[in-house]
Design goal:
Length: 203
């Protein structure tokens, strides 16, 4: 894997092992249809997925309202003042995201969708080759992401879910709960995990 920029220069929340795994999964899946991610932030996961989509001749849909998750809001643990738009009084990671796309030369591979997952889901019905869920971590948000997008994955496609912690002491449980939902649905077979990245294949 060769990335088109120094990935450490991109703000985000993804371990390089997880990024490499996303890249490899997308490289094999992307010929089956568009890849979609929920939760782009400043584009770290987007660069891994987008680079693979380019190599495979595919496209990446990147869904994020760019207003931040709960933990990114003013006064919260992961707030970044550089991503706060004081004029609007809200988080705005879209400017940084576009800059990442430009630096990574991915503007002709990635389709940014600046909308909530729920709204984008109301607009789009697609045969997706791969879905990466890394959006809001409330149970309601994670369930919406799963119910909206996982059902649109084609047979043989991939579902990847970030921030899976088996022990509640290590982190929030919503991603783990939708991971369990996917397994219980019998629509998916669980593959090996990479750190906190759960990976499933659509039957
Ligand atoms: N994948 C990124 C990190 C994503 S952080 C990386 O590799 O670094 C989570 C992102 O999800 C935030 O940018 C936030 O704006 C977005 N998000 C949270 N809830 C959302 C929702 N309901 N719809 C769309 N995006 C959402
Ligand atoms: Mg995450």
């Amino acid at each position: 894997m060769r990335l088109p920029l120094d990935i450490q220069s991109v703000k985000g929340f993804l371990h390089p092992d997880e990024g490499r795994r996303l890249h490899d999964l997308a490289l094999h899946a992307a010929s089956l249809g568009p890849v979609l991610e929920v939760g782009s932030y400043c584009g770290k996961s987007t660069v891994y997925l987008g680079t693979a989509c380019r190599a495979a001749g595919g496209v990446l849909l990147a869904v994020d309202h760019h207003r931040g998750s709960e933990e990114h809001q003013l006064g919260e643990a992961y707030h970044d003042p550089a991503l706060y738009d004081a004029d609007v009084g809200a988080m705005d990671s879209f400017r940084a995201f576009r800059q990442t796309l430009a630096e990574a030369c991915l503007e002709d591979v990635v389709v940014p969708i600046v909308a909530s997952s729920e709204l984008a889901g109301r607009a789009l019905r697609l045969p997706l080759s791969m879905v990466f869920i890394d959006g809001g971590h409330s149970l309601a948000a994670a369930q919406t992401d799963y119910l909206t997008w996982a059902t649109q994955i084609v047979s043989g496609g991939v579902l990847a879910i970030h921030d899976i912690f088996e022990d509640p002491a290590d982190g929030g449980q919503a991603p783990h709960q939708i991971y369990q939902l996917a397994i219980a649905s019998e629509l998916f077979v669980a593959l090996e995990k990479t750190r906190t990245l759960g990976v499933l294949k659509r039957r």
